[in-house]
Amino acid sequence: MVFPWHLNAHFDGFLWTLSIHVPFARYVAMNKIKTIKRYHIDRVYRRDQPRMTLGRYREFYQCDFDIAGEYDPMIPDAECVRIVYEILSQLDLGSFIIKVNHRNVLDGMFEACGVPPEKFRSICSSVDKLDKTEWEEVKKEMVEGKGLEEAVADKIGEYVKLSGHFELLEKLMSDMGLTAVASARAGLEDMKLLLHYCELFGVLDKVSFDLSLARGLDYYTGVIYEAILTGDATMKDGEVPAVGSVAGGGRYDGLVGMFDPKGQHVPCVGVSIGIERVFSILESRAKEAGGKGIRTVETQVMVASGQKNLLEQRMKVCTLLWNAGIKTEMLYKRNPKLLNQFQYSEREGVPLLVIVGEEETVKGGVKIRDTHTREEDFVEMAALVPELNKRLAECQHSERV
Amino acid sequence: MVFPWHLNAHFDGFLWTLSIHVPFARYVAMNKIKTIKRYHIDRVYRRDQPRMTLGRYREFYQCDFDIAGEYDPMIPDAECVRIVYEILSQLDLGSFIIKVNHRNVLDGMFEACGVPPEKFRSICSSVDKLDKTEWEEVKKEMVEGKGLEEAVADKIGEYVKLSGHFELLEKLMSDMGLTAVASARAGLEDMKLLLHYCELFGVLDKVSFDLSLARGLDYYTGVIYEAILTGDATMKDGEVPAVGSVAGGGRYDGLVGMFDPKGQHVPCVGVSIGIERVFSILESRAKEAGGKGIRTVETQVMVASGQKNLLEQRMKVCTLLWNAGIKTEMLYKRNPKLLNQFQYSEREGVPLLVIVGEEETVKGGVKIRDTHTREEDFVEMAALVPELNKRLAECQHSERV
């Protein structure tokens, strides 16, 4: 999927991002697109002042997945959950939960509790703080800061404790206060479909319908998501704790129309992955595990030599392996020291070395060295590529490549 | 290789690119790096006025490969040639040639011909036009525009006709005028090594040592490269001709020092691929071939159904295939029309469909449909994933995926 990014260069020189989903919605509107599905990993730009000490720069990476188009209810919405599930599972970030809720259920809840409509958004932003703040404090903000009756706040307090799957749904569907609100009923029907589809997609065990989830962004019109890492909070000082939000999003059916001169309506749903956060967690985990951080090269084989005047030999072997599609490197020295080549492979996590030597050349072959076990075996040249491929497949299997 | 791009956001808001190699050299200098090798595909920004009619925007994509560090002569330089060779071969852009030359050979040639030293750069930029302009016109510019003696221009004219491999090298090495210039001798020694290494890397047949190659950029200090597509110049009106320069670069040993306050010397060599040009060629070729353009999705299997009320079945099959790592899609409709699913697969080049049906479900399986041949076969559910993997491997083999 290629983004015509040059279009962006003409908003006073650059496209500044306002928030997740916004650049996508603008793109859909500007290009009069009716259906599209795309992911996108790229730099975006914040217009506010950089705060370098907090690692908050004007420029940062964002990773989004969005689906635009008029479809049947909750099918793309459920696929978004599946995608977040796949990403977080494959990144191996530890245990996680994908919280889901619905704008209409939230609004219905506020109405059922007796929140005046003009306070919905303001009370919603208080609820949004529940992932970091205790209920008592949030309640205080609602009552003292925002003038909500204490009895109303207490009713909200009962709801936002709730999370679950179908049993919660049943409970809410038999809640007369809530189901008196038509939009809440529709929201609950949506959630029922979503949970059902999540079950079919094999991800329900990681999904939690959570009434305390209230993302602050005004433009959400349906389901909202937030993925939270829940694992291993017992980390040492200075380490990035692998807990907290790593993805969020939801349905925003009105946003495209805001950017289209004719107000064309294109419903959208999407998720943004906190990619910079994910990287720092992965980096700190990798350091903790092996002290080496994450691999920054994909090299599979280092072609090495411990004797002099074997540069040409090494080059020929590189050519052979490159032609076979094996990711191969050699040091750019005429006569590098063997130790340097071993150290490079260990430092960069290159799993295998091919060692060229005079003795082996006479015998028509080379040695293969396993960086991990340090074992070395002679292989005839004709058998080299198949043998490397076999070992690389094994490495992959044991997750060492 | 992760670039700390946020650093760039602090040159008056953005990093403007001046030319290829410059952002990389600046990065190496700013981070006091001694050795690094990296590729980079990203947007860069030109400070000059956009000319939209020429497709010249402030923002465009650049794809570079650079190697920095103190190494033995011509080893990284030859790897750059191999990398360009691999990229252009794998992109299947038709026949190409990688022209190589050397700054010192060029300067030596000018000296041997009797060009006054203060005119080297100016005459060099005339030579640079030879890929697009006839010699007679270039000569006219040299003599009438730049005041070069005609006899001197004629001597240059004899040199810039020359191209070849080792036989050209021999000829030049026995050229008394040229070898009287010490730096030219050193340049020829470099070229001898380069051609030898290119032979070892299996790419010499695509390399041409070409004395007419003179890249305009002042900062090159050694080898210079330019890759030219040579194939199929007989195209219809309005089509992008698949000829001309698609990559260029060279050695620039002094550039890092210009950005380092202490003038730290880090030799570099690198190549930039004209990625926007490459894309437009690939697109126009693909359209010519099949009328469909290049695939923008990687979907391998579309899970489809022609009967009603099989959404849940489709979702389950998607889950099965996703779990098996197969790139799978289904339409986000409850009851999509079978024809729409066929058309989508044909339009997007999805090679296989899995068709869910009541009859097949009773028999415990599904049908697999080949988008290309339109043949359909029943497969039992337990055999589905292995069968799809087998067929996808075949598709890959016949380059249809």
Which short descriptors sum up this protein?
homodimer; 401 residues; alpha+beta; BirA Bifunctional Protein, domain 2; Rossmann fold; 2 domains; 8-stranded mixed β-sheet; 5-stranded mixed β-sheet; 15 helices; 13 strands; 19% strand; elongated; disordered N terminus; RNA binding (chains A, B); histidine-tRNA ligase activity (chains A, B); ATP-binding (chains A, B); nucleotide-binding (chains A, B); aminoacyl-trna synthetase (chains A, B)
Write the layout of secondary structure elements.
The structure is a homodimer of 401-residue chains.
Chain A: H1 22-30, E1 36-45, E2 59-68, H2 75-91, E3 96-102, H3 103-113, H4 120-127, H5 135-145, H6 150-160, E4 163-164, H7 166-173, H8 176-179, H9 182-200, E5 207-210, E6 223-229, E7 244-251, H10 255-259, E8 268-273, H11 275-290, E9 301-305, H12 311-323, E10 328-329, H13 338-348, E11 352-356, H14 358-362, E12 365-370, E13 376-380, H15 381-397
Parallel strand pairs in A: 3-5, 9-10, 9-11
Antiparallel strand pairs in A: 1-2, 2-8, 3-6, 4-5, 6-7, 7-8, 11-12, 12-13
Helix pairs in contact in A: 2-9, 3-9, 5-6, 7-9
Domain Aminoacyl-transfer RNA synthetases class-II family profile (chains A, B): 39-282
EC number (chains A, B): 6.1.1.21
GO molecular function, one term (chains A, B): ATP binding
